[in-house]
Write a structure and sequence with these properties.
Strand order of the largest sheet: 1-4
Shape: flat
Oligomer: single chain
Radius of gyration: 26 Å
Length: 191
């Protein structure tokens, strides 16, 4: 088996799999296509499913091989979850069968959400970091690093906030501080 160096690969399918190597893009696209439930599809339905899958991968816009693999996995998880949901709604389905299919669909959709998070983290959209270069605390003053919520009438105390740190004044001192902010996706109905 001979492997061509990456610079010799044209990469015309990069929009599908994220790689400049079309062999990789073809493999990832075929893996996504093989995750389809096609047992009862006629040729027109099959062609429609294949086109939709390729366009879904293009729509995810993979920028590299990792994103291409995540795109294929997202499509596979989506297809499997939807198939479990379809099977749960069959008229002749037993209660136990319906429950099991819905449980599997639930697990698959949770895995899907985890993969979307992983894709966003890989793309740099997951965690944000802010650096505070100078903190000036004047004599008698106090600064709090953390989430501060002002209540109605009751003075807030840093002792009641385990995530907050008090910075007291030391004359002539400025210290850089690094604050990490983590944003988590909030599920919403209807996108």
């Amino acid at each position: 088996m001979k492997v061509s160096p990456p610079e010799e690969q044209p990469g015309s399918l990069k929009r599908i799999g994220g790689s400049s190597n079309d062999a990789f893009n073809n493999i990832v696209a075929n893996q996504a296509l093989k995750s389809l439930w096609v047992a009862h599809s006629d040729s027109a339905g099959l062609d429609s499913q294949y086109q939709a899958t390729v366009h879904a991968m293009i729509g995810i816009e993979p920028n590299d091989e990792i994103e291409g693999m995540l795109a294929a996995q997202l499509i596979g998880l989506h297809n499997a979850a939807m198939e479990c949901m379809r099977r749960a709604m069959l008229d002749e389905q037993t209660f136990e069968g319906r429950r099991e299919n819905l449980n599997q669909a639930n697990k698959l959709t949770r895995s899907y959400a985890t993969l979307v998070e992983a894709l966003n983290r890989h793309r740099g959209k997951g965690q944000q970091r802010m650096t505070v270069e100078h903190v000036h605390v004047h004599q008698g003053g106090q600064a709090i690093v953390g989430n501060v919520h002002q209540g109605g009438g009751a003075p807030s105390k840093t002792e009641d906030q385990p995530h907050a740190r008090a910075i007291t004044h030391e004359p002539g001192q400025t210290q850089p501080r690094e604050i990490e902010t983590v944003r988590e996706a909030v599920p919403s109905a209807g996108g």
